[in-house]
Structures are given as structure tokens and as C-alpha cells.
């Protein structure tokens, strides 16, 4: 194989790898953002759609607990969480490209610099799903 052909094939393969990683990163970012928006809006039913079945079930149980609160307490929680803003700061793929960590900041009125958080996503049926919320 000539050196020129080898270089061309190498560059083509490298660009495909970079493109596929960026595509995974973008898809994961979008799903993570949709999850976070739903989660902090206390729309756990929608948030569960972006999760693994196990985490989705946990969110649905949490929603039942919120629904059982007194009306005033529930309204206060919804008001406070509706003011939360999030920003995804970084996405890191694990070796094997079937799981990743999403680093994000949560902005509250009392914390203008944001609070660092992470979540773990896994690929299930060719789709990124939130598997673990960490604090």
C-alpha cells in the first residue's frame, strides 16, 4: 500500500471516529438537557422517558410522594424548582462508548456560581438514557 493511500485512509478513518464521537456527544447532550429541564420542572413523568426503566420508576415513585403533599407545600416546591437553571459543562465518554458522564451546573438564586453535579448515561437500544443522578 502506498504511503499516500495509507495517509488518505487513515485520515478518513480518523474523521469518521471524530464525527461519530461528536454525534454521540450531541445526542447525549440533547437528551440530558431535556431530562434536566423535565426533572427540575418536577415533570417526572416526562423525565422518566429519558431514563433507564429503574431510574424512571424511582422518579414516578417520587412524583407520587410530591403529589401526596399538602397543596401549599407542593406549590412552594414547584415554585422554587421552576427558578432553577442548568448548564451542561462537559460530556465524557467512557471507554467502549456505551456510557458517559454528563457534568452540569445547577444555578439557584443563592448560588450565582452554580453547584456542580453529574449524571451517568448509558446507551440502551441505541438511545442515551439517564441511569444515575449524583450530587
Question: Which secondary structure elements does this structure contain, and how are they paired or packed?
Answer:
Blueprint: H1 3-40, H2 44-48, H3 53-67, H4 71-82, E1 85-93, E2 99-108, E3 111-124, E4 127-134
Radius of gyration: 19 Å
**So, CATH architecture?**
Roll
- For the termini, the CA-CA separation is 52 Å
**Which structural class do the helices and strands define?**
alpha+beta
| Biggest β-sheet: strands ordered side by side in the sheet | 1-2-3-4
Sheet bearing the most strands, described?
4 strands, antiparallel
Question: Can you describe this structure in just a few lines?
Answer:
By secondary structure, this protein is an alpha+beta fold. The protein contains four helices and four strands; from the N terminus they run H-H-H-H-E-E-E-E.
Question: Care to describe what's here?
Answer:
It is a single chain. The protein is 52% helix and 30% strand. By secondary structure, it is α+β, with helices and mostly antiparallel strands. The protein has a single domain, classed as Nuclear Transport Factor 2, Chain: A. Strands 1-2-3-4 form a 4-stranded antiparallel sheet, covered by helices on one side. β1 and β2 form a beta hairpin. The longest helix has 38 residues, at 3-40. The protein is flat and about 45 Å long. The model is unreliable at 3-23 (pLDDT under 50).
